[in-house]
Amino acid sequence: MKSTAYHTPIVQPNDDLLQILFAAIPQLAEQSVVCITSKIAALCEGAVVPIKAGTREEKHALVAREAEYYLPANASKYDLMLTIKHQVLAVNAGIDESNVSGVYALLPKDPYRLAAEVWQAARAHYQVQQVGVVITDSRSFPLKWGAIGTSLAHCGFAALNSHIGEPDLFGRLLKMTTVNVAESLAQAGTFEMGESNEQQPLAVIQDIPRIVFQDQPPTAPEIAELVIGINDDVYAPLLTSVTWQCGKHV
């Protein structure tokens, strides 16, 4: 598998995402997956809020507005808010001020709609049939230092590879093993794009093993298959031991 990041000009609010994509990536081969950071996706759709006071209270109020569920900032020693947004357990609902000027960058409003639009445009522009798109973000990982990539949305390929019912090395049938292809690609693309001032918000991944491309955007049932309810999650003892507050986007 090969991942290549692409440099772009500094993206400003309301820039044209497709224009940036097509200018940065001159060619796209069949069976490639394009990774796009949520930061430039949000900027291009104008999902930003001007910084007024720049206080912790201002940002906390914005997080409470944008999150689906959240814990108060005083629940963390770092004065950060643990949230759930777009079915991702994240800090501050993905809102931050890094690599933008004078604004809080939010997450894209509808990542799956965006991924489908980019997928359709990329197939037409590059004259390819089998291609994928992943909208990526960065998140922290419990009990480990450092950020990793995560998928907010995908399009053009099956996000899950189930191995349930297949034998392991010793013939035992697997009962729960399922590979999240979208998350795996998001991590590979994010690592290549970088996390600071690389100015590489796009990546193309090629030679991907065991990926199944599709000729339509994911259906609602396919998207729903990616979601685990809190009470059914293996981490339910942790997730249900706190009192989540509903954000205004619920």
Task: Please describe the structure with a list of short key phrases separated by commas or semicolons.
250 residues, alpha+beta, 60s Ribosomal Protein L30, Chain: A, 2 domains, five-stranded mixed β-sheet, four-stranded antiparallel β-sheet, 13 strands
Can you walk me through this structure?
Strand 5 and strand 6 form a beta hairpin. The chain is of the alpha+beta class. The strands form four sheets. A five-stranded mixed beta sheet has the order 1-12-2-8-9. Strands 6-5-4-13 form a four-stranded antiparallel beta sheet, covered by helices on one side. It is built from seven helices and 13 strands. It folds into two domains: 159 residues, CofE-like (60s Ribosomal Protein L30, Chain: A, 2-Layer Sandwich); 68 residues, no CATH class.
